[in-house]
Amino acid sequence: MLTVSGVHTFYGAIEALKGVDLEVSAGEIVTLIGANGAGKSTLLMTICGNPPARAGRVIFEGEDITRLPTFEIVRRGIAQSPEGRRIFPRMTVLENLQMGSISAKPGSFNTELERVFHLFPRLKERIDQRAGTMSGGEQQMLAIGRALMSQPRLLLLDEPSLGLAPLVVRQIFQVIKDINREQKMTVFMVEQNAFHALKLAHRGYVMVTGKITMSGTGAELLANEEVRAAYLEGGH
Amino acid sequence: MTAISESAAGRALPWPSMLRESGLAAFVALLLTVPLVGFRTVDRPTGLGISTRFDEVLAAAALVFIGRLGLCLVNEGRALLVMVLSILALAVSAFVGFPTEALKVIAMGGAFVISLRAAMKINGDAAITLAAVYVALFLGPWLQLGGGVTLWLVAKSVIAAAALAVAVWRGLHAWRKHGAPVSLADRDKAMDRIAVKVQQASRFLGPVGIAFALIFPFLPIADRVSIDIGILLLTYIMLGWGLNIVVGLAGLLDLGYVAFYAVGAYSYALLATYFGWGFWICLPLAGVLAALSGVLLGFPVLRLRGDYFAIVTLGFGEIIRVILINWYQFTGGPNGISGIPRPSFFGLAEFNRNPTGGLPSFHEMFGLEFSSLHRIIFLYYLILALALVVNLFTLRVRKLPMGRAWEALREDDIACSSLGINRTNMKLGAFAIAAMFGGFAGSFFATRQGFISPESFTFIESAIILAIVVLGGMGSQVGVVVATFIVIGLPEMFRELEQYRMVAFGMGMVLIMLWRPRGLLAHRDPTIRLQGYGGGGTPAAGTAAAGGEAIAGGRAK
């Protein structure tokens, strides 16, 4: 579904991605783990074309989207829940969700809204509340819900567990699993919380300073000595 | 009330630290006033000379010292004493002669603020009482009973009477109950509540205000001067609403809005004087030209963000002005354009006594006595209609995808692009539409004045319009109206202070920014509510992101 091949991305003169190859197939949950500053978020941003890759190609459903502007990429069925959630704080929950459906097919709003409320009943309770006054977990739910409103076929999640209490993290990951299973949604997720992410994901990649160093099924990586030593010891 | 000061009176005052703090404040005041006030250039027969006025510098520093000492005393629990003293000081300085009016303004303003601060320390009712008394004293008709009844006098008297009633009612409270002192946070919260109430009341206050604006020219209190002021206020309200689209909704800080005003004004003036076209043909053309200039500016600029964006718009405003000054053959340069035709009555009649253009005259057409007021009233309705169009547009567009996208851009423009919003087009749209409204206002300005020159389009105009939007509370339509009355109306009110009215005006601005840092009416109303879900009633009133869960309360179904 999504193929990233030989992607190099620069911030000015700094090479953040040094030839990344990876693949996400339809119906999968794929996770990318790595330390701070490894380039995980940059990869997600590059898939969305902001900044675009300087070399290499990003193919989505057979189409080269490397050079497309971000809004065109989103219209082709990729939705992103960006790092740090980035909900609209002064707008209500409903307005936030409506912003998510701005590039969706017209007329889809009500059914998508029902679906999001089914996944996150909490959002339905908070429908008229200003998003900025909600807790971190609720804001994360809103960020994912907002991304789903555009009826994507590929959902990109950037650190959905960032700054959340362990209990809330478990809730969020459960919902990601549900989205994948019930809606057959393909999910590509960047995470620092390696343990939870690998347990959830079908497959995983490990990124170190702009390069993919390892890949395998979630279970394989969880069992891998190096991964354990680098990302799991003392963690989760 | 007395309980607080008695309990504190037992403690000794920390004089050394209080004196040190006051001295420091006075020192800072000295540093600031020496270069600004201490020296002035004077014309001498031999050329420019410098005269000093250090006596005024010292007086200002002394005032600051006393004021700071008063604040220290308030913090040490001597609120009642300071309140009484500062009220006395206010009263005395109102009648005593000062070496200059500026010192008088500083003394009175300082005493005003300190007495309010002291009253807050006593309790909330005392503070409200005092504030209401000040409003009543300031607006009361005491000074002008000799003159005729003007709209201004009526409005002032009504407000003063209301303030007096509040003062009596709250004053009784303050005497009976020994309420707790009010903290700054309490004050801000109370003001937030008031702002939310006002904004909610705008649903019926709006129509009432519009109805009043509609019948205003026919009220007996409306004379030529008050209608002229009405036109001035409406022009700024329209410009404020226009700029509100860019600054308030889309969150783009535009410091050069006056450029579009100028493009509109010159478009009309040039089209009308070169081709002899009428106002009603030129108005849409001026709007289109202004919108085009907005797009022209927008293309290179919209990739910039924040401060950089603001600086470039500032430059654009200046570029337009400099072009107008220097393109002498086309724009008349600094001499401007005069003899700009007045608008006709929708192309059917003219407002002159003896029309020359082949059209009948207005008063004959309607069988009225000729009056020069007809044209002014017509201009009044013209700008009222234009302003209402802008307002209606903004109210509608907030409920459409485009307006929502603008608001989302203001909130977080990175999130917007990840939602598939074409940021460039959206920003260009906001820019072009606001520019178009600025252009409309500009051609109205040209036709009203009959004469325009680059001097009318300096940066200070942009700053005033921006001040209206920011003071009103970004994105608030009612806020723009309230702020226009303050920003344009206050300098009119302070006319008795003559050249120092700008000092008083500046002080007023500082106070508003201290008390309402996010604007007078910063509350944002949601644009959509779904029937059948938890909502439909009042909006959740959490204005600040304060901890989340606790505020949320039970909004479940």
TrEMBL record, chain A:
<dbReference type="Pfam" id="PF00005">
    <property type="entry name" value="ABC_tran"/>
</dbReference>
<feature type="domain" description="ABC transporter">
    <location>
        <begin position="2"/>
        <end position="234"/>
    </location>
</feature>
<dbReference type="InterPro" id="IPR003439">
    <property type="entry name" value="ABC_transporter-like_ATP-bd"/>
</dbReference>
<keyword id="KW-0547">Nucleotide-binding</keyword>
<dbReference type="InterPro" id="IPR027417">
    <property type="entry name" value="P-loop_NTPase"/>
</dbReference>
<dbReference type="InterPro" id="IPR017871">
    <property type="entry name" value="ABC_transporter-like_CS"/>
</dbReference>
<dbReference type="InterPro" id="IPR030660">
    <property type="entry name" value="ABC_branched_ATPase_LivF/BraG"/>
</dbReference>
<dbReference type="InterPro" id="IPR052156">
    <property type="entry name" value="BCAA_Transport_ATP-bd_LivF"/>
</dbReference>
<keyword id="KW-0029">Amino-acid transport</keyword>
<dbReference type="InterPro" id="IPR003593">
    <property type="entry name" value="AAA+_ATPase"/>
</dbReference>
<dbReference type="GO" id="GO:0005524">
    <property type="term" value="F:ATP binding"/>
</dbReference>
<keyword id="KW-0813">Transport</keyword>
<comment type="similarity">
    <text>Belongs to the ABC transporter superfamily.</text>
</comment>
<protein>
    <submittedName>
        <fullName>ABC transporter ATP-binding protein</fullName>
    </submittedName>
</protein>
<keyword id="KW-0067">ATP-binding</keyword>
Automatic annotation (TrEMBL), chain B:
<dbReference type="Pfam" id="PF02653">
    <property type="entry name" value="BPD_transp_2"/>
</dbReference>
<feature type="transmembrane region" description="Helical">
    <location>
        <begin position="102"/>
        <end position="119"/>
    </location>
</feature>
<keyword id="KW-1133">Transmembrane helix</keyword>
<feature type="transmembrane region" description="Helical">
    <location>
        <begin position="277"/>
        <end position="301"/>
    </location>
</feature>
<keyword id="KW-0812">Transmembrane</keyword>
<feature type="domain" description="High-affinity branched-chain amino acid transport system permease LivHM N-terminal">
    <location>
        <begin position="19"/>
        <end position="72"/>
    </location>
</feature>
<dbReference type="Pfam" id="PF11862">
    <property type="entry name" value="DUF3382"/>
</dbReference>
<feature type="transmembrane region" description="Helical">
    <location>
        <begin position="376"/>
        <end position="395"/>
    </location>
</feature>
<feature type="transmembrane region" description="Helical">
    <location>
        <begin position="57"/>
        <end position="74"/>
    </location>
</feature>
<dbReference type="InterPro" id="IPR043428">
    <property type="entry name" value="LivM-like"/>
</dbReference>
<feature type="transmembrane region" description="Helical">
    <location>
        <begin position="24"/>
        <end position="42"/>
    </location>
</feature>
<protein>
    <submittedName>
        <fullName>High-affinity branched-chain amino acid ABC transporter permease LivM</fullName>
    </submittedName>
</protein>
<feature type="transmembrane region" description="Helical">
    <location>
        <begin position="126"/>
        <end position="143"/>
    </location>
</feature>
<feature type="transmembrane region" description="Helical">
    <location>
        <begin position="500"/>
        <end position="517"/>
    </location>
</feature>
<dbReference type="InterPro" id="IPR021807">
    <property type="entry name" value="LivHM_N"/>
</dbReference>
<feature type="transmembrane region" description="Helical">
    <location>
        <begin position="149"/>
        <end position="169"/>
    </location>
</feature>
<feature type="transmembrane region" description="Helical">
    <location>
        <begin position="252"/>
        <end position="271"/>
    </location>
</feature>
<keyword id="KW-1003">Cell membrane</keyword>
<dbReference type="InterPro" id="IPR001851">
    <property type="entry name" value="ABC_transp_permease"/>
</dbReference>
<feature type="transmembrane region" description="Helical">
    <location>
        <begin position="428"/>
        <end position="447"/>
    </location>
</feature>
<feature type="transmembrane region" description="Helical">
    <location>
        <begin position="201"/>
        <end position="219"/>
    </location>
</feature>
<keyword id="KW-0472">Membrane</keyword>
